[in-house]
Amino acid sequence: MPPSAQSRRRLLFVALALLLPASLLLAAASGAYYIPPLEIPRVLREGLEGASVLLNIRFPRVLLAALVGGTLALSGAVLQGLLRTPLVEPGLLGLGAGAALGAVLWLAFLPLAAWGLPLAAALGVLATLGLLLRLVPVGGEQTGVRLLLVGLLLTTILNALVGLLQFRVGDPQGRSLTFWTLGGFGGAGWELLALTAPLALLSALALLGLGRALNALTLGEEEAFHLGIGVAALKRRALLLVALGVGAAVAAAGNIAFVGLLVPWLLRAWGGADHRFVLPAAWLLGASLTVLTDLVARTALAPVELPVGLLTALLGGPLFLLLLGREGWRG
Amino acid sequence: MKHWFLTIPLLLGLALAQPFRLTDATGREVEVRSTERIVSVGGSISEILDKFGLTERIVGRDAGSYIPAALLKKPDVGLFFRLNAEALLAQRPTLVLAVSEAGPPPVLAQLRQAGVSVVLVPDEPTPEGVKKKIRTIGAAVGQPARAEELVRALERDLLALRSKTRVRRGEPLRVLYIYPRDPRNTFVCGEEASGAGLIALAGAQNAVKTVQGAAALRGCVNLTAEAVAAARPEAIVVPFFPDQPFSFENILRLPGVAETPAGRNRRIVAMDVTFISGYGYTAGRAALELHQALYEKTGPVRINHPSFNP
Amino acid sequence: MASWLEAHALGFWRAGRWLLRGATFSLEPGFWVILGPNGAGKSTLLRLLSGEWHPSEGSVALKGVLLKRYTPAQLALERAFLPQQRSLAFPYTVREVVALGRLPHQQRRPENPTDRARVEWALEQTGALPWANRPYFSLSGGERTRVDLARVLAQETPILLLDEPTNHLDPRQQLEILALAQRLARDGRLVLAALHELNLAALFADQLLLLKEGRLVALGTPEKLLQPALLQEVYGVPFEVLVHAGRRLVLPSFEAG
User: Fold this and answer.
1) Which helix (H) or strand (E) element contains residue B268?
2) Alpha-carbon distance B288 to B305, whole Å?
3) What pTM did the predictor assign?
4) Which of A8, A83, A274, A297 is the most exposed place for a label (fewest CB within 10 A)?
5) Per-residue pLDDT averaged across B75-100, rounded?
6) How far is it, in rounded angstroms, from Cα C248 to Cα C242?
7) Would you give the DSSP letter of residue A258?
8) Count of A–B CB contacts within 8 Å?
9) Cα separation of C77 and C80, whole Å?
10) DSSP letter (8 states) at residue C241
11) Percent of chain C beyond pLDDT 90?
């Protein structure tokens, strides 16, 4: 590893590690309920009017955005390494929609048991993964393109099922469909954070350890075996952890697409494809970007709440097209 | 003439057989030949038709009409803005009385082509609008005198209300109108949304106007939790629906509500949706009861429609 | 002292036929070459010996222990495998690809200077050092083969299994690679390569394994095995054996007409 590339990676990592607290601070200082940023410490200390807004609305929301963004970006990076293509991510493969379906089914039959929502969503993700991998055998030519295609079809079908369920059960005009399909942090609070954090953090910590194995997998499944990786066990473990993380994230904030796709791509472009760098960097960058995007979603058209997924699609979609055009359709 | 005494019943009969002519909300001239089979679209329309004694002639109603309760047994022709043409025509109506936003337009055109009289009734959420509504319906069913009776009853209610609001001092109460949709978003309505209009009539002010950027808010939008807190409402008004379970706890859990004076004091007024946003002949009474709930009561209050008690 | 790689009645069934059957042999350090026509089972044999495929019959033992008792991680420290078909999912540089060979040694520790030194050595041995910082995808087929061989070297294992390492290489490169393989074997390793070119095998191999239609037909030195009768039996064409400048050459003879 030539020193310049390695030091660039280190520099990038430090920059990302600094970006996250900076984003958190910026987001914590801004919002529709106006409190001069410099006054915030005093407001909190003296318990002035607005302190409860900060503590109960703004802060948990910022933290949730970071948690969800980090989880989605990391899951995207792992999926890309596991499926050996840069074209995939939880949102576009239909995993977000599967999570939504799992969650909506749970809500339809057990509306009072909100604690089970992340797990129900995770089951939805697993089922969707199972279906996806049955329909598209990994490892042939053009796997990435096929996965993307089938994933988009699955997304459409699953979203329709979610909509249908909502029309039948409890929401005859189906208007909360936008929450599931476009995402949003509007419901953030300490309760939701406490419900989401265990699974999301567990998933993230465990996924971070898969960097070495994913590096080996870059050469293909047979070669990864020859380098000492138990491939079947790796796949099971990785997919299960991704399901837990994505399930928790989507149950909390709906489907937010493009984060899991573009963050790993950017990181590989800047720092190379070593997963031991990409995975933790993805969590950091995903968290920061989502915090900042949510800041825009809740202040740009204040007082209106814009769905976060709308913004990520608006920004991410064209960027994806640009990257495809430039980098070619490899994968 | 030998049989001159026959001309009187003949003339009367001719007079009675005259179709009713009126101008509807869209300025269209409509001829109503028969009120035998009526389809009613709009909760307030159904409510008013009941006061004209015509409930028995209603052969179909939109999904949102449930006053009086007898209507629930009548065929459902869809949501008022998404009517089902086939279900409607299957009832072979002679007259369709609908709120002015009824639709979609192609369905209305199909009805007219089939020879059905379609009267779009003005639906402005103001006292004057209610009077126009009652009078239009009266003209369409040939009972103008009865319409004036209802208008006078409405004016009496409004007078009673005005006497109360005139006496009250201080700033009008800050109220947010929240339409409960999905639990992760607080869907707040501005002045012109029909439910919220009653707030001004009841002597309170719509708190959403004071939120930065929301001054021009017309319809309803999802508000960020912080914006809800920034509106500082002292009370929250919420419509409830007859076929959906309602719980004050759910409202208190909407984003931002817990951080408002209304949320902290549990000042939530839940009103039957037709009562609050129908603007039928009971609009005056609705405003009065809302005023009382806001200014004379404490804690959560539930206001049912006077004609509908499940 | 158990032999390094031992096969016992080894057989593999797939898609309705036996790709390999009844192979029994024992390998010690040295340069071994597997020869045979297409479909004879050369790749199959290599993959059974590497542990990637499980035998349908018989067994493989590495250093006296059955292969299936090893974990993948343990195997990776004993043997390295160079495949025929190669793929790379992400745009690594040449050096990064070769560094992947060090992964089995990094199970419990991050990259260290020893790893980097082995990578440089492997690049040097295969002549890939000039391209070390270039993207792998920018290389030609032959260059990629050398980089992959460097990766296999970097893995630093006593056993090397090479499936057609001379594909895509021009004559000079072929000689260089096989000379390298021979050197590695002389240093005490067991190098087992599947090759197409009979004469290159004759030049470099210590011992040959001749396969035909899934059967191990003969095992022995090039002198013993490269005989016209045996070759005709295996390849189905007559061969002529020539001796030129002390070297043994076999040529398939072709009757025109």
Assistant:
1) strand B268-272
2) 13
3) 0.85
4) A8
5) 88
6) 6
7) S
8) 90
9) 8
10) E
11) 66
